[in-house]
Write a structure and sequence with these properties.
- This protein is α/β, with parallel strands linked by helices.
- The protein has one domain: TIM Barrel (Alpha-Beta Barrel), CATH 3.20.20.
- Helices cover 35% and strands 16% of the residues.
- It is built from ten helices and nine strands.
- The chain has helices at 21-29, 75-86, 109-120, 139-149, 165-170, 177-190, 209-222, 239-245, 254-267, 295-308; strands at residues 34-38, 95-99, 125-132, 153-161, 195-202, 226-231, 234-235, 273-276, 286-288.
- The strands form two sheets. It has a seven-stranded parallel sheet with strand order 1-2-3-4-5-6-8. Strands 7-9 form a two-stranded antiparallel ribbon.
- The radius of gyration is 19 Å and the shape is globular.
């Protein structure tokens, strides 16, 4: 029998022992969707001084929007350019507009409405993903997001990175886990139709395996709709790059990261969609770890490890 036939994980039709984003897209939209990164020209509260300066130590000046077009272009122009680019490899008849760069609810509601509505008016846009911070969810914004969730498939992506407040301060995150929970709870209470995706980063300075797994357990208790698991990578021009060059920061090794991801998946609820398992920066800006460029190989080895130990997403969730 094949690995697919013997797969004990219920939310899969392949050998994947976790709830893949591809499986979610096919069940939600009837097929794959192109996810188009956009830069709406926003900033962040830990850049402009509201809660800090300089941003998180790992962010480039694009605010995680390194693969988005220039913010000087309109949302309409950016979507058109991204469709043209993505069409070389994928079907772009169904697309999700992904407001990715910086904090995409950190503006007056009138500005947010203008950007989001412009995206939704474009042909083929079937959903919105909005990347933001849980401390940037004003009541009127949350109310509008609840309205949007009844009109389109809406996912609000909240960067948590870690539930350890000491680690959050170390990376200049600018909010605590309690702050994060308040924003998360506000979205949950506003509408059950708002999909919530939580971002976590493994390999933050000063964190050991126990600390990282405690973050996973804390997030599992919140039971978000999706989780994205990231590898901390070092980009040129960031404060993290200075720590790396001076020897004060050492990135995770490949084998350790693979094991951490496998362990994390077993702790997460089985019905939580896994938006990603790793990531890297733009090739020209990536300093380390260089092994992160081979994402497919890393994901394949995560699959192999889960299979070898008969592991799968959620296996240990009910023991938390």
């Amino acid at each position: 029998m094949t690995q697919t036939q013997t797969n004990p994980f219920p939310h899969s039709d392949s050998n994947k022992r976790y709830y893949t984003y591809d499986y979610y897209l096919r069940r939600t939209f009837g097929g794959k969707c192109a996810k188009l990164p956009l830069d709406a020209g926003f900033t962040c509260p830990n850049i402009d001084g509201r809660c800090g300066r300089g941003g998180c130590i790992y962010c480039s000046d694009r605010g995680s929007g390194d693969f988005a077009p220039a913010a000087q272009l309109s949302v309409t122009e950016q979507i058109a350019r991204q469709k043209e680019l993505f069409a070389r490899k994928w079907d772009v008849s169904r697309c999700i507009a992904y407001f990715q760069a910086h904090t995409n609810t950190y503006a007056p509601l009138s500005v947010l409405k203008e950007k989001y509505e412009e995206a939704l008016s474009q042909e083929g846009i079937v959903g919105l993903n909005i990347a933001t911070r849980a401390d940037c969810l004003a009541p009127d914004t949350v109310e509008y997001l609840a309205q949007l969730s009844r009109r389109t498939v809406l996912t609000v992506e909240l960067g948590l990175q870690t539930s350890c407040d000491e680690s959050a301060a170390r990376i200049n995150r600018g909010h605590t886990f309690a702050d994060f929970y308040r924003g998360f709870a506000a979205l949950r209470e506003a509408s059950p139709d708002i999909g919530i995706c939580v971002h976590l980063i493994f390999g933050l300075p000063g964190e050991d395996d126990k600390t990282m797994m405690q973050t996973v357990r804390d997030v599992a208790k919140l039971h978000p709709d999706q989780v994205k698991l990231h590898l901390l990578h070092v980009l040129k021009g960031t404060r993290l790059a200075k720590l790396y060059v001076s020897g004060e920061y050492v990135p995770l090794e490949r084998e350790r990261y693979i094991r951490l991801i496998a362990d994390a998946l077993e702790l997460l609820p089985p019905d939580v969609v896994i938006g990603r398992l790793t990531g890297d920066g733009a090739a020209d800006d990536l300093l380390a770890p260089l092994w992160s460029r081979k994402k497919t190989a890393v994901i394949n080895d995560i699959d192999k490890l889960l299979y070898s130990q008969n592991g799968y997403q959620g296996r240990l969730y009910f023991e938390n």
